[in-house]
TrEMBL record:
Major location category of this protein: other
SUPFAM superfamilies: Periplasmic binding protein-like II
Protein's recorded name: Lipoprotein
Keyword annotations from UniProtKB, A to Z: Lipoprotein, Signal, Transport
GO terms under cellular component: cell envelope
InterPro entries in the record: Bact_solute-bd_prot1, SBP
Keyword Transport assigned: yes
Family the entry assigns: Belongs to the bacterial solute-binding protein 1 family.
Organism (species): Streptomyces violaceusniger
């Protein structure tokens, strides 16, 4: 991958500032690939590697010698979707014992995390480690990163990272996204290439009913009509707006919402693709094919509607592929979730823009001492251990006999493990993204196959891999379009209303924002 430029604001200025390519190269950690375990399914077309088999405990590798910590105690502020584990549980105790230090996790409701995060950063009473996802990186929160969190460059840039081999094995693209305010500040959770939106469908029910997977927007509408039976409490789908944008080749979200045409930057909302996606989605709602709760905007129960069979098609992030499979395996062994292949507007090849190489980071409080930062980085090196290591088995499955049992050579969480072992430590840092679920090898094959097929049509968006903070005066310019899309697709507003909003966006600052990005593109190039 070519070296791209990171961009963020200057310290506290709220103005656009960039880090030059040469400066960025000096900031980034040296990449040293892990050689612990070869994947069962190698990467094809940029897909993540897959692991369908679990090494026996006797064959797991020690990637960290001894306990990395020195008895320190640190607080961690992070989101959690679902029921929080009990405090001081056996899993936390086991991990902290292996770390040789204490990480006091403070999980918050993920659905309201942004509000709590903003309040905490404004108060100054900040935990030692704070997780911030890209989707919560509003203007003020993004700007606070430089003011509140430590520069990790002196510890990780260049060959310094070799002190922490598991951190050195994190791909360069993910580290590049971790540059904020001209400094390497974030510990990343590397992303899979197309992780943001997957159109899932109930393959078990499709097979039973003889439904054919659609290969065009028109076929999708026809199938939706065939599936929907309100009297039987079955609807075709949930809100498909995110998938609709990909069906019609729209670019992604901020800052990837630009395309270049005839030497000029065009914003996503200015494209015909965007209006076509709105109109197609409006037809889904108008036809009555969308579940009434989704029409009402009740998104939190979308997975329940899908797994209960009230909807047969649903779009969400890639984590739900395993999550729904695991959840339903016991009570409903015939349940089968599958990813629908994307298609173009006319049923031809789709145009799919890659997701950011990292979308979640943890940051270390600026008030920590050098010794404390080094200890936390040593803990992070343990947590970033790849598949096939003792550390990874502990972080992902807890203690054998307590949180998981080996069944047919595969670690399977028991009731205690399901309750206590959640993705809490992974929010500190994660290894290179893979699909490692040996308890459901067919699901691994399905997901890797979907990635490989879709990877043929994937392309890098403009500004790919760049960490960009727009000037504060433009921070809220795009925000109204989220509600606008809901109103238009549900018939409360028209396409003409959308066109007027686009015109207002241009005159209200959109054209100036375009000039700002054009200058950035001229100065630094792009990853397209």
């Amino acid at each position: 991958m070519p070296l791209l430029t990171g961009c963020s604001t200057e310290e506290g200025s709220g103005k656009g500032g960039t880090t030059s390519g040469k400066e960025l190269k000096n900031l980034l950690p040296t990449y040293v690939a892990s050689k612990v375990a070869d994947p069962d399914i190698p990467s094809v077309n940029g897909s993540s590697p897959g692991y369908t088999k679990a090494p026996p405990a006797t064959e797991l590798v020690d990637s960290v010698k001894g306990k990395p910590g020195h008895g320190g105690s640190y607080t961690m502020f992070e989101p959690l979707w679902g029921t929080p584990p009990p405090k001081n549980n056996a899993y936390y105790k086991a991990v902290n014992d292996a770390l040789g230090a204490t990480v006091k996790l403070q999980p918050q409701d993920g659905n309201t995390y942004g509000e709590k995060l903003g309040a905490v950063l404004a108060s100054g009473d900040i935990a030692d480690i704070v997780m911030i996802p890209l989707w919560e990186m509003g203007g003020r929160i993004h700007g606070a990163v430089s003011a509140k969190f430590a520069d990790l460059g002196p510890y990780l840039s260049g060959d310094k990272v070799k002190k922490y081999p598991n951190l050195a094995a994190i791909p360069t693209a993910a580290w590049q996204m971790s540059v904020f305010g001209g400094k390497l500040r974030g510990l990343p959770m590397p992303s899979r290439p197309l992780n943001g939106v997957i159109p899932y469908y109930r393959e078990d029910i499709f097979t039973k009913e003889g439904y054919q997977v659609p290969k065009s927007p028109a076929e999708f509408l026809a199938l939706a009509k065939e599936i929907t039976r309100p009297k039987s409490k079955v609807w075709a789908c949930d809100d498909m707006w995110w998938s609709a944008q990909r069906f019609f080749g729209c670019p992604g979200e901020k800052p990837y919402y630009w395309v270049e045409k005839d030497g000029r930057l065009i914003h996503k909302v200015e494209t015909e693709n965007y209006l076509e996606a709105l109109e197609w989605c409006r037809k889904l709602f108008a036809g009555g094919y969308v579940h009434p709760d989704a029409v009402a905007g009740k998104g939190n129960d979308a997975q329940v509607r899908f797994t209960s069979g009230q909807t047969l098609i649903w779009n969400d992030g890639d984590a739900k592929w395993y999550g729904a499979t695991f959840e339903q395996a016991g009570p409903h062994p015939d349940f089968k979730i599958q990813g629908m292949d994307y298609f173009g507007p006319d049923g031809g090849d789709p145009v799919i823009y890659l997701d950011p190489p990292a979308q979640i980071w943890s940051f270390l409080n600026k008030k920590l001492s050098k010794d404390q930062i080094e200890e936390i980085l040593a803990l992070a090196n343990f947590i970033a251990a790849p598949f096939g290591t003792k550390e990874q088995r502990l972080i992902d499955y807890g203690v054998e006999g307590v949180h998981h049992d080996m069944k047919k050579g595969v670690p399977v969480k028991n009731a205690k493990g399901i309750k206590e072992v959640q993705d809490t430590y992974r929010f500190i840092v994660s290894p290179q993204a893979s699909v490692a679920y040996p308890d459901f090898p067919q699901m691994v094959e399905d997901y890797c196959g979907w990635m490989q097929r879709m990877g043929k049509f994937a392309r890098k968006p403009l500004f790919y891999g760049m960490q960009i903070q727009e000037p504060n005066r433009y921070a809220s310019l795009y925000t109204p379009f989220e509600d606008l899309a809901k109103d238009v697709t549900r018939g409360r507003k028209s396409i003409k209303d959308a066109q007027r909003a686009i015109s207002d966006w241009r005159s209200g600052g959109g054209d100036r924002l375009r000039d700002w990005y054009a200058k950035l593109l001229d100065e630094n190039g792009s990853g397209a």
